[in-house]
Specification:
single chain, alpha+beta, 7-stranded antiparallel β-sheet, 3-stranded antiparallel β-sheet, 13 helices, 12 strands, 19% strand, globular
Length: 382
């Protein structure tokens, strides 16, 4: 069953959330940008199917996701994880190679932060965090524009020296520390830290994400890092840089806001046009609204969701992680078809100034394992 022909998800979510932000204290200037459906030139869409070869020609208005590496060390000959190739017809003012390097650098930053968050990692967490970090650094080295590859390549070399030592001790951090096996690498560690600091400075200066969003995602990923390599997920982010999410690898199309305004958007599905107008395909729509500190209204986020009037509310439950808190709503019989939905309405625990809404739909019944995996990976804010 199709929704009203005059209201599609993309326009409706932005318009409703913008109205809420204005009511809660957002500026008139910010909300005025969402009074109508966004132009396609500012909300680009990716439509190409996934490939198995990393793409270094992604236009500046998109970000190309890479998945976590297989559960083997970087020295193996297993094929590289898939990446989603973007629609190269999308216009953009920024060099597309720089855009790809930005995304890969952001991923490397996130997983380097994961290693910092894991203060007492298990062997499984240590192996996963180091191998994924090595994978992301290799990706950054491969996508670096001419003249910018030397430092990520050197970071990759240092990881190549480090990982065999950890392998020798079965990634037992305490055993490695007691053995003193890493002491001869002290200068290499200092060099690695310097490179990663410079990479973070590059992300701040040349790329769009707020550092706080990257840090928040690292905090959320750390507890599940040992599971991440086995999850069928791919990372995506809106071009404005204030929403990051790992979604099903079967959802290769995504679309996102290019500038941070009162409300920003990120959608993913296996068919965005169908997802935008019906309940017949799986996908997610995430919005982020910005309000005055302490004024986030999570109840209104659910009440104004597209699922609320079109679906039957079955249950709700508290949602809390290390960064966000709120409610998760589970719904069924959406649009009169056999589709379940889940709506997450949360705010950041630190300031309560960000209103985050994630709407998922699952034809044929929701997949709770997939839902929980995606909820464990999102980060949003400015």
């Amino acid at each position: 069953m199709h929704r009203s022909p005059t209201i599609v998800r993309r326009a409706a979510l932005l318009a409703v959330t913008a109205a809420l932000v204005t009511a809660c204290g957002g500026s008139d200037d910010e909300s005025s940008t969402t009074d109508a459906t966004p132009a396609e030139t500012t909300v680009p869409e990716t439509t190409a199917p996934a490939t198995t070869v990393p793409d270094t020609t992604v236009p500046a208005t998109t970000v190309a996701p890479t998945t976590a590496p297989p559960a083997t060390t970087p020295e193996t000959t297993e094929p590289a994880p898939p990446t989603t190739e973007a629609d190269t017809s999308i216009p953009g003012d920024v060099d597309p190679v720089l855009a790809q390097f930005c995304f890969d650098s952001e991923q490397a930053y996130v997983f380097n932060q994961v290693t910092n968050v894991l203060t007492d990692p298990t062997p499984e967490q240590a192996e996963a965090s180091l191998s994924i970090l090595a994978f992301t650094i290799d990706a950054a080295a491969a996508s670096a524009p001419e003249g910018m590859a030397e430092q990520p390549q050197r970071a990759s070399e240092i990881m190549g020296e480090l990982i065999p030592v950890f392998e020798e001790y079965a990634y037992d951090v305490d055993a490695i520390s007691e053995s003193g096996a890493l002491e001869p690498m002290a200068e290499s560690f200092a060099e690695f830290d310097s490179i990663m600091t410079q990479l973070a400075d590059f992300v701040d200066a040349e790329c769009t994400p707020a550092r706080a969003v990257l840090d928040s995602q690292a905090i959320k990923l750390a507890p599940v890092i040992d599971q991440l390599r086995d999850w069928p997920l791919q990372p995506i982010a809106n071009q404005a840089g204030d929403i990051r999410l790992l979604v099903s690898a079967d959802w290769p199309e995504w679309i996102g806001s290019t500038e941070v305004e009162a409300v920003t958007l990120l959608q993913a599905s296996n068919d965005l046009d169908e997802f935008d107008a019906t309940w017949n395909v799986p996908g997610v729509a995430a919005t982020v609204g910005y309000v005055e500190p302490g004024t986030a209204d999570l109840a209104i986020l659910f009440e104004t969701s597209l699922a609320a009037p079109d679906c039957t509310l079955d249950s709700s439950e508290d949602y809390v992680d290390d960064v966000y808190y709120g409610q998760l709503y589970l719904l069924s019989e959406c649009g009169g078809v056999d589709t379940d939905a889940a709506v997450l309405a949360v705010t950041d625990g630190a300031t309560e100034s960000v209103e985050v809404s994630l709407e998922f739909q699952f034809p044929g019944g929701y997949d709770r394992a997939l839902l929980d995996q995606m909820l464990a990976t999102f980060a949003a804010g400015a």
